[in-house]
Design brief:
Strands 2-1-6-5-4-3 form a six-stranded mixed β-sheet. The chain has a single domain (about 30-150), classed as Nuclear Transport Factor 2, Chain: A. By secondary structure, the protein is of the alpha+beta class. Helices cover about 40% and strands about 45% of the residues.
């Protein structure tokens, strides 16, 4: 009887552990639309790392509002000019805790970034929360709004 009780208790502990792990995992995209948006957002991050202004020109909407964690607001033209002038260099952008919600031709992505970069000659590593809004225009997902907020160290 003790062995059965011990076996049942062990199974319960294992089941709870598995459920806790599953709860903590990031669920993958649940639709083709979410996959498309995440792909474009990854392309955007890669373009930042490689200074690829042609890709950024394609991904950023002409009227994008880009609010940095510092509160600085940049337009598409200012972002592209910054990369062309070499005043910013992204070493890595790692995203986690990412969620995507779609509403027709609008998608909202929220998550956390860990960024290593140089800005105007200064090295920095920062972790922030972000919120990005993409809309589908002429068959392509375009970033129309970005807001970042630094996390406390």
């Amino acid at each position: 009887m003790k062995q059965i009780s011990l076996a049942v208790a062990l199974l319960v502990v294992c089941a709870v552990a598995v459920m806790a792990q599953e709860h903590g995992k990031k669920a993958g995209p649940t639709s083709k639309t979410e996959e498309e948006v995440l792909k474009v957002d990854t392309e955007r991050a890669d373009a930042y790392i490689h200074g690829d202004t042609a890709s950024l020109d394609r991904i950023l909407a002409d009227d994008v509002t880009y609010v940095h964690p510092t509160g600085k607001v940049e337009t598409k033209a200012e972002i592209l000019a910054g990369f062309k002038a070499g005043d910013r260099q992204y070493i890595s952008i790692d995203r986690d805790d990412v969620t995507v919600k779609t509403y027709g031709d609008t998608a909202v992505i929220a998550g956390r970034n860990t960024i290593k970069a140089k800005y105007q000659g200064q090295d920095f590593t920062v972790q922030n929360r972000f919120l990005r809004v993409y809309i589908k225009q002429q068959g392509q997902w375009k970033l129309v709004a970005h807001q970042g907020a630094n996390l406390a160290k």
